[in-house]
Structures are given as C-alpha cells and as structure tokens.
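ARCHIVE CARD
Drawer: 12
Card no.: 0347
Subject: one protein chain, sequence and derived structure
Cross-reference: see card 0346
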Amino acid sequence: MGLFFLLLFLSISSSLLPFCASQGIIAPGKYISANQTIISASGNFALGFFSLRNSTPRYYLGIWYNKIQKKNVVWVANRESPADSLGTFALGVDGNLVILDATRKTVWSSNVKLADSAINKTTGMLMDNGNLVLRRDEAILWQSFDHPSDTFLPGMRLGYNRKTGQRRQLTSWTDAEDPQPGMFSFGIGTTGGPQFYIWRDNDPYSRSDVYSNSVSYAKLSKLRPFAYYLTINLKGDDIYVTYSASENSAILRVTLVPDGRIELLLWQEINNDWLSLWQWPSTYCEFYAQCSPFSSCDPKGSQDHCKCLPGFQPKVQQEWDMRNWTGGTCVRQKALRCDKDDGFLKLVNMKLPDHSYILGNMSAHDCESRCLRNCSCTAYAYLNTSEGISGKCLNWYGDLMDLVQDFVGSDLYIRLHDRDLVENVKKSAKFTRKKTHPIIIAVAAVSIGLLGVLCGYFIWRKSCGKQGSFCIFPSHIHTPYKDNAC
C-alpha cells in the first residue's frame, strides 16, 4: 500500500509542472528541465533548453516562437555561460530565477537583491510578448527585455538611461550555430546627439543621422495590409526606441545578424519562412566613415563615392585619384583666422557628422554666434523641435566625420574663410557671414571712392532692392542678418 501512495504522489507531482508551465508561470518549488518548456498564456512564445552544436554540446536556456515550426531563438539567458550538461530552470533559494547544471551549480541568475521578506513571494512568468519577468505580486523586479540578446521584439525598448547609465542594446551571435556574444552590437550612442550605432568590437561600424526630438515613423507593408511604427523617445532620462505593428497577427522581429546587419523580418505562413523587409547597412555610404574627414559620401556616385567639401581639397591628390578615400585626407584651401573673415557655408540634405555637442535650445542666430565665438568650432547645425519655438543647437569641433550628401537629413553649416567661400560656393549652397562692424563698413566705403558708391547704388537698385540680398555677394549667397542688408 505504501508503494502505491508513493507512486501516486510522484504522478501527481509530475503533472503539476506541465500545468503550471502551460500558464507561462514558474512558481516556488517548480522547475523545468530537459525537453520541458514554459508556454506563454496565449501560446505565442516558449521557454526551454536548447543546444545547437552536436559535436560539443552546450546547453542554453532560451525563448523562441511557439507557433512557428522553425525554432528561431529570440533571447538567451546564459549565452555567456553555457552549461556542459542539461540542468534545471527554477526559482532559487534567494528568490531569483536561476539555471542550475547537473551538479546543482548555479550557471546563471537574474541576480536581483531581494529583502528576506520577499524571497518566498516571487514568481517567474513568460509574457505573450516574449518578455520573461521576475515579479512579486504585480511589481516587476527583473525582465529579460532589459537584457536583450540579438533580437529586438515589438514592445521592447532599446536605449539608455542618462541618470542610471543602464544600457539596452543588441549583441549578435558569434555565428548562426553559436549564441555566445559576437563582435557586433547595436544601440543608441551615449554621447552627442541621439543616434543609432552598429559597433564592431566597440568601434563604429555604421551610424544613423542625429535626432533632435521624439519622432515616429510609419511605413506600410506592400505584402500585407498593415503598417509598422518606429518611435524614438528623447524625453526625460530615458532615451529609447520602440516599434509595433498595426496588425496583431503580424509577426515581426528585428535581428542583429552575425555579419553586422540589422534586419526587419516578417513571418510569412504561406512560405513558412521569414521575409526581410529592411536591412542596414546595405549601401556603400551607410558604412561608417567611408570617406576621409572633411569629405562627404555620395550615394549616387558610380565610381567616385567621396568628394572633398567645398573649400577643401585632397592633401595628396595621387591618393585621391587612386580612390584611397579613407587615407587621402581633405585639407582647407585657405586657413581660418578666427576673425571677421570667417563664415559658414550651408550644405543642405546632409547626414550630420559624428561627435556632435548639444548646446541646448536657442535661436538660430544664437547658435551661429556660439560657433563663431569659439575658434575650435568647425560647423554647426540648428535643428527644429516640436517643443516650443527654439530649436536644438549642435556644434562640432575638429574633424567632420562620416558625412553623407543627398540624404534625408538636415542643413549643416561648415566654417570656411570668407574669400574661400566666394570662390568655391556652389549654386546649391548658401553662405552666412559674421556681422560686420559699421565703422569697418564706413572706412571701406570711403576707400572705394565715388566709383564704388555709384556701382553699389546700381547693384542695390537692381539686386538688393528686389531681393534683400547682401550686396557684396552673389544673389544665391544668403545672410540671416537683415540689419546688414542693403
């Protein structure tokens, strides 16, 4: 009779785990091992152990799509500490989510410091959006969304917190069969203006434009009647990006693949495969700093991808002719003097350079003046915001890196010598000049003489009287200072 009750107890105990796991919950005293899984409430995601390399098996705890036949793992708990043998996943004696190997050694832990009163009151839960959480009652103490692997899921946030320094970024797998951290990572840079980076061994590999304020993008899919939305939030201490789809049944994921590309993928049931909707980087100019400092990358260039900025020329023409654009440096045609002869050349539709400095919200006039007063300032940009009248002022000091022209970007004002500007300005570019002192204007007018006055009068009647242009410059050159107009 005793043996009968023992077998009955074991049978009941073993049936409790699958029932609990089917609700996506792991409670105190429960665990999973081997081929057992935890399934989210609506069955969207599964959590369990997996191994990819049969020659030297290593075991990981991961999350994957439960309703898709292909096991596409979207998160790995112990990617930095794979187990040599199958273990268990449970709540530890300290209340944390833990992975134990066959010897009962802790391989991985959620590593949350809990009060003694909370240790026996925590539960783990796999949510329907793919987020694994550790919580007490309704309070979330830890979540996998704060510790991404290589996949960015809808509802997840990537970015960083300026106060705590916490960063959420993707890290690629080593290769398709090894989930250990690879050489590429993706996230939002923590210095300068907010922008996306792909890093290769912590060095920039690709970079987006600079964002001035919170924005949202929507794009319609040509394959299915739904849209996907990308939102960049720059408010408060949290700077992050998130995305979603208008149709809940659309299965989307953003993955940083081992070769360094970011892909937006859509699951197609009819083909039983993932379709790539978008990849980055995919063109020459999308890779970081393909051209030397003070040059821009032309995405439409068939052979000559790089061009020195107006007012600059190759330091060694032979290297430039050999298309050695990264080693062939562009140098100024005329040196700056940091005086009244310095001005700004306006370049339109530019991807702004790397290493920007945000000076805060101010007027366009003040933004230009701040750059002029600093002899080390080589360029500025004024970005409009949706939060009031003033816009954000960005300055650059030293080399201008990673510029792209014909870009859906912003206006960039680069600092050049006045005479250099007059000689090199293009029709598509505009120039703003430092405000000239009235005494200098008077002395110059007297020295020019009667002939100069008469010429100036006719020029004023013909050009400035109609256009309000700055008299001594061609009509396509512009100054924001109306009090200096003729």
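Annotation on reverse: The helical segments are 2-22, 317-321, 364-373, 418-424, 438-448, 450-467. Residues 172 and 257 are 6 Å apart (CA to CA).
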